[in-house]
Design a protein that fits this description.
By secondary structure, the chain is an alpha/beta fold. It has two domains: 156 residues, Rossmann fold; 196 residues. Helices cover 37% and strands 18% of the residues. It has a five-stranded mixed sheet. A hairpin with a 3-residue loop joins strand 1 and strand 2. The longest helix has 21 residues. The chain starts with a strand and ends in a 12-residue tail after the last helix. The relative contact order is 0.13.
């Protein structure tokens, strides 16, 4: 069967992997600088040695997908929407809870989202806030009331009419609310409720709708390219593809002891942490909490990056009491990984008694150019394992590998149509790397 070219269009580099079907053998890899004025040129450069291979791609170029969440109550429905958005690979740029007033609508607009995720109420539960917020988002004129700093709200501060809404709230009023949004000229994509019942998070329908909106409005628009091939190639936002690849990796090693996978992906602008914990251990630990816990989750740190966000990264490292990383890319990468893992654990702790389950996993994967090109991966792992502020507890007792050929995005891209190939790529990651057991590991 003809190989397929799996391409990740990043903000700095466009990376390509030539994958043989149906088994998933990785035949070659290549990369080229991302051409932000027209990303198609960068794709063609990265795949120039794969001329006969069809292209499937994911993209985070231009900042990826910017998403604002508008919910009913901060600790329940808005938080459920936030978690669903992160699982879809979006960068959450704003979270609003309660009834949107003029200032609240201006704050949503000021975050410059590509899409708004509108949630609120369990199925058959409270619906008045969802109705109110739909009317606010649909309003063709400024809402009445004071804007920021006490002044009136001008028409330029009304949420742009082109910003679509993914509606994933109370199913009992879904048709009514969607009608209000459409009557106001707002593009709408309907999805099942992200929180159909207290304690039950159901993000998959919203995740699929967010992906569809991204493909239609971001990839299908002219922000990244006017070349029609881009819309044919791109299947997902990159973090969504990577999360799918991490889930494949977790399935491949489900019989390992201990199971569970954490991936730390350090980039130029952001650092992502992906977690697919041991489901049996987590189920034992978790009680019934307000929002519920997705089986696979992700946190994204928009101020942690080794190039575009280096100044913010240094400030974040200082706030965490870490040594100043200076200007060396590897030192910056280690600092980004340490801070991101600490924050991830704090976010996990909010899930309740089973939280922080990024600890105790069997495999930690380090991804990103700073790790792939490191001369001494054992030293990198040792320094991260020695972090007493949290990162070390994730690495303790786990095998640690570096995704040197960047196969997780490729695995996620082919997972739906070619599951054997996705599993083959995941196994290749495990076989290509010599696992390193951190010196600070605790025996099990």
């Amino acid at each position: 069967m003809t190989p397929i070219a799996c391409v990740d269009i990043g903000s700095t580099f466009t990376k390509a992997a030539l994958v043989r079907l149906p088994g998933g053998a990785l035949e070659a890899t290549a990369q080229a600088p991302t051409t932000l004025d027209d990303v198609v040129r960068g794709v063609l450069e990265a795949t120039r040695d794969f001329p006969e291979a069809p292209v499937v791609a994911c993209s985070s170029a231009g900042g990826g997908l910017r998403l604002a969440v508008v919910g009913y109550e901060e600790l329940i429905s808005a938080e459920a929407g936030h978690r669903a958005a992160l699982s879809a690979g979006a960068r959450v740029v704003h979270v609003a809870a309660g009834r949107l007033d003029a200032a609240g609508l201006a704050a949503v607009d000021g975050a410059r989202p590509d899409v708004v995720l509108l949630v609120g109420g369990t199925d058959g539960g409270e619906a008045s806030v969802l109705r109110h917020n739909a009317a606010a988002l649909a309003s063709p004129a400024p809402l009445q009331g004071p804007g920021p700093r006490g002044r009136g709200l001008g028409s330029s501060e009304v949420l742009r009419r082109s910003v679509p809404v993914v509606l994933a709230g109370n199913a009992a009023v879904r048709e009514e609310v969607a009608g209000v949004l459409r009557a106001g000229g707002r593009p709408v994509r309907e999805a099942a409720n992200v929180l159909p019942d207290i304690g039950r998070l159901a993000p998959e329908s919203a995740r699929a709708a967010i992906r569809e909106v991204y493909l239609e409005h971001v990839i299908g628009g002219d922000r990244l390219s006017t070349d029609s091939r881009l819309r044919r190639w791109v299947r997902a936002v990159t973090p969504d593809a990577v999360l799918e690849g991490v889930a494949v990796l977790a399935r491949v090693r489900a019989d390992a002891e201990p199971p569970g996978v954490v991936v730390v992906d350090v980039g130029g602008a952001t650092t992502d942490v992906y977690c697919v914990p041991d489901p049996d251990a987590e189920q034992t630990a978790l009680g019934r909490e307000a929002v519920g816990v997705p089986a696979r989750r992700r946190t994204v740190e928009g101020d942690l990056g080794v190039s575009w966000s280096a100044d913010a990264l240094r400030a974040a490292a200082a706030a965490e009491g870490l040594p100043a990383p200076g200007d060396r890319p590897l030192a910056l990468g280690e600092a980004a990984a340490a801070v991101a893992l600490r924050r991830h654990l704090r976010a996990e702790a909010a899930y309740g008694p089973g939280g922080a389950s990024a600890r105790g996993v069997g495999l930690v994967v380090l991804s990103g150019g700073v790790f792939r090109h490191a001369d001494d991966p054992t030293g990198v792992v040792a320094r991260l394992a020695a972090d007493g502020g949290g990162a070390g507890s994730v690495l303790a007792g786990a095998a640690v590998v570096v995704d040197r050929r960047y196969v997780l995005a490729a695995a996620g891209l082919v997972a739906a149509d070619h599951p054997r190939a996705a599993e083959g790529l995941a196994r290749a990651l495990l076989l290509d790397a010599d696992p390193v057991i951190p010196p600070a590991a605790t025996p099990r």
